[in-house]
Amino acid sequence: MQHKQENSPDILFDNRTFRLVVGSNGLVKSLVVKENGEECLAQDQGIALFSATQERPYNNEVKLAHPNKRTTYQANAIRREGNRLIVGFEVVPFQAIIEVIERPDYLAFRLADFVADTADYPMPMTPPPVKELRLFQLPVKDRTHFGAWLNVSWDAQAAVNVLSTSPYARIDAERRQGYRVMYADALRDVRLQGTEAALIACPTHRLMDVIDTLEKDYDLPRGVASRRDARINASMYWSASATPENIHEHIAWMKKGGFTMMLLYYTCLFEERGGYSLNGNYDYRPEYPNGREDVRAMLRTLKEHGITPGLHVLQTHIGVNSRYVTPVADHRLHLTRHFTLAQPLDEKNTTITVEQNPIGSVMAQGARVLQFGGELIAYEAYTTQPPYQFTGCRRGAYNTHIVAHPMGQIGGILDVSEFGGSSVYLDQQSSLADEVADKIADAYNAGFEFLYFDGSEGTNAPFEIYVPCSQYRVYRKLHQPPIFTEGAAKAHFSWHYQSGGNAFDIFPPEVFKEKIRQFPCEQAPRMFSDFTRLNFGWWGFWAPGTQPDMVEYGTSRAAAWDCPVTIQSNLSAFQAHPRIADILEVFRRWEDVRARGWLTDAHKHMLRNIQQEHILLVDEDGQYELQPYDRIDGAAGGSEDMLAFILERKGERIVVYWHTHGEAQLHLPLHAQDIRLEQSLGGSALPVQQEAGYTTLPLGNRLYVRSKLSREALVQAFQQAEVC
Questions:
Q1: For residues 310 and 448, is the Cβ–Cβ distance under 8 A?
Q2: Do residues 317 and 458 make contact, with C-beta atoms less than 8 angstroms apart?
Q3: pLDDT digit string (tens) for 506-540?
Q4: What is the CATH architecture assignment of 628-723?
Q5: Where are the alpha helices (DSSP H) in 151-243?
Q6: Which of 470, 471, 473 has the alpha carbon at shortest distance from 485?
Q7: Identical fold, 232-318+426-496 and 628-723
Q8: What is the Cα–Cα distance from 681 to 619, expressed in whole angstroms?
Q9: Structural contact between residues 596 and 603, judged by C-beta atoms closer than 8 angstroms
Q10: b/e map of 212-246 (b: 16 or more CB within 10 Å)?
């Protein structure tokens, strides 16, 4: 089958927004944004618009003449027949039929079929045996920003986006010198025919509008509309133990912190013990005797108080004590490797002989588990020389039934979750994925309005396909689309609904600020390049470890990028922490600022200096004021009982200070006439007591010392102060 065409005219795609030129030899030539004439391609790179990849050559003559290895064949001939492109490839004797969908603002390429002469593939196989088909690829010039998740290259002038229209295309980019090859692939092991992806090239100010149009055209989740919802930047109050019995206590705390979004962990609704060990059952707790109707009533209570409820689930996890694991392990659990029994296995055998070499098998403590039939078997070690064996086996792991297994039975290594080993991952290619999604959706449809997909990394490979698929299964079963979703893992297609990005896990107080700088502050600019915010964290709450300045630092860094934060509620710690009022006031101020859109671009750029801390003050007129401030190191001789920070404004110095875990007095070596103590700026002066050589100040909640003394004098005085 001959493909190559000589001296044929170029193929032109010309819509309202851009012009794409492809040579009849398959090479891409130009991509121009019409509004400003921006050429978006690194030209003359010799890159074909299409390619096909085989694991080895399958045509007999090609197989004889060429190395038998994974090989990619570039397109070398393209001709257009209506809305279809007939694509030929170098060396291999078949063609691909690519359907082109032309819209005013984008193009989409869909693999329709293959053409192969049976004379070229006379063997009993379905030709052509293609492992991957590149739906299209373009050498896109580097610009200021590249969003790896959305797969978009952009700057102030133009944006180029390769975007999936379904969960089944692999979307990615390869870095080259001065450009990236941005591409979309159809995969045989996922779906070949029917897989589709779109190309967008437009002025950057129109990108979100164009994606919004595409999402509507394909009836996809409305990722753009979700990102434009004002509620997406509101911080969250998380609970793992809220029930109808204590929901009003949670509401009271939320109101003090200005929280309007509540994220309820699945354990608020469903029975659980020992990590995730019952996950998958989704049996309602005793506090919900009427099941979902009682959940609906609790959510109605939240909404009556102006609080929007969200649900936090782990849609990929199956608990090791759930009905899906014990006493008979479900056949739909995911196995990471498969082994065939080389000898029969009776009920007493503790050595398992298999046909395949186990080399490289899991050896992590708690994850060394085999599944054969409905029995789970823990192993201690394995051999890497014949006979291949798993040794030191403990039969009936997780209280599964011990049974005999015949020679030739196929089993494998159970995909045990790396997070504590209390759960395993389900097989995303099985009906169990939908069964679990049905249970989650049933609960969500009681009245939840946003969703967190935790544990999303726990899927089959390829992860860029099955991570979004695991989430999308749940999403499609929801009666109303969520305001937004977040997740512990993301891949390209999830951009359409995971508009909240990800949250970070708990950072303890002693490393809190360091970890904020190291992780969410590092990620925020990258998420900005993907036109998405992130959640700066699930912040655990410790009494007395959590302090107002930690919250001030973390939530101000989040606000710099229009991002929210999440506090993990701890009712007993809330009640025990003497500074809880100050901490919640910090949250309240920043939530009010977010809701009002008070921060200017100048404020945000100032807050992006992660080495400088800032405080959000309420000034003498009751208005917000953002100021840099610095910790006074060694305050009170380095006492752990107090913290103090200094700032300068309006020709004076202000020290904000507090006791970290109780109440006391502070002996400050200054004259009373040199300072003014206030509970709030512009408030009445609080009484202080002049002693011989020092002034006694109350030390408890956050207070403000105002002074005309020099910065150096104030810092020195607080360093020499004594806690009494």
A1: yes
A2: yes
A3: 899 999 999 999 999 999 999 999 999 999 999 99
A4: Sandwich (2.60)
A5: 207-217, 223-227
A6: 471
A7: no
A8: 6
A9: no
A10: bbbbeebebbbbbebbeeeebbbbbbbbeebbeee
Domain 232-318+426-496 in CATH 3.20.20.70? The answer is: yes
- What are the boundaries of each domain within the chain? 11-220, 232-318+426-496, 335-414, 509-611, 628-723
Mean of pLDDT values over 222-242: 97
For residues 426 and 433, give the distance between their C-alpha atoms in angstroms, rounded to a whole number. Answer: 7
Could you tell me if residue 82 is left (phi over 0), alpha (psi between -120 and 50 degrees) or otherwise beta? left
Cα–Cα distance, 600 to 294 (Å, whole number): 43
Decide: pTM greater than 0.85: yes
Q: What are the backbone dihedrals phi and psi of residue 429, each rounded to the nearest 5 degrees, phi first?
A: -95, 10
Residue closest to 169 by CA, chosen among 410, 469, 412, 487? 469
Q: In this structure, are residues 198 and 106 in contact, taking their beta carbons and an 8 Å threshold?
A: yes
- H-run or E-run covering 435: helix 432-444
User: For 284-300, what is the mean pLDDT?
Assistant: 98
Q: Are the CB atoms for 715 and 646 separated by under 8 Å?
A: yes
Whether 264 contacts 309, CB under 8 Å: yes
How confident is the model over 143-171, as pLDDT tens digits?
999 999 999 999 999 999 999 999 999 99
Spatial neighbors of 615 by CB under 8 A, at least 6 apart, are 552, 626, 627, 629, 645, 647, 656
Do residues 699 and 657 make contact, with C-beta atoms less than 8 angstroms apart? yes
DSSP annotation of 124 reads S
Domain 11-220 has CATH 2.70.98: yes
Q: What is the pLDDT of residues 376-418, one digit of tens each?
A: 999 999 999 999 999 999 999 999 999 999 999 999 999 999 9
DSSP 354-394: ESS--TT---STT--EEEETTEEEE-SEE-SSSSEEEES-B
The SS3 of residue 684 is coil
Q: Tokens in use for 327?
A: 């006493």
SS3 257: helix
